[in-house]
Design goal:
With 115 residues, this protein is mainly α. The protein has one domain: Four Helix Bundle (Hemerythrin (Met), subunit A) (Up-down Bundle). 65% of the residues lie in helices and 0% in strands. Helix 1 packs antiparallel against helix 2. The protein binds zinc ion (ZN). The site of zinc ion has 8 residues, from helix 4.
Length: 115
């Protein structure tokens, strides 16, 4: 049960997860704004600008999908933390090294399984 992580390392990784969560929440607020329906004034906006807005919304939706996926990963990581299973690969059950967790605190798997 997270034997390979010291309590200090676990504290540090909890802080990293909290920070990642706040950062994501901020960026998701921006994406929310960008995803609000664009009011296309047919007379004022030419066809090219309309295509532009629609393309931007498409990109924003892709970004939103990635943000949702990351949010899911962070939330599950916090759950694993609570259950004492954090830092243990969900694929092979092996220990995920502290160095990897520091870079990807939300990762559910070791480097070998993530490939
Ligand atoms: Zn693994």
């Amino acid at each position: 049960m997270m034997k390979h992580l010291t309590p200090y390392q676990i504290d540090q990784l909890t802080d990293e997860l909290d920070a990642a969560l706040s950062k994501l929440e901020r960026s998701m607020r921006v994406t929310d704004d960008a995803l609000r329906p664009v009011h296309l004034d047919q007379s004022a906006v030419g066809r090219l600008s309309r295509i532009d807005s629609l393309q931007n919304q498409g990109l924003t939706r892709n970004l939103r999908d990635r943000e949702q996926a990351k949010l899911g990963q962070i939330v599950s990581a916090l759950e694993r933390m609570e259950k004492g299973r954090y830092g243990i690969c969900i694929e092979c059950g092996g220990d995920i090294p502290f160095e990897r967790l520091l870079v990807f605190p939300e990762t559910p798997s070791c480097a070998a399984c993530a490939l």
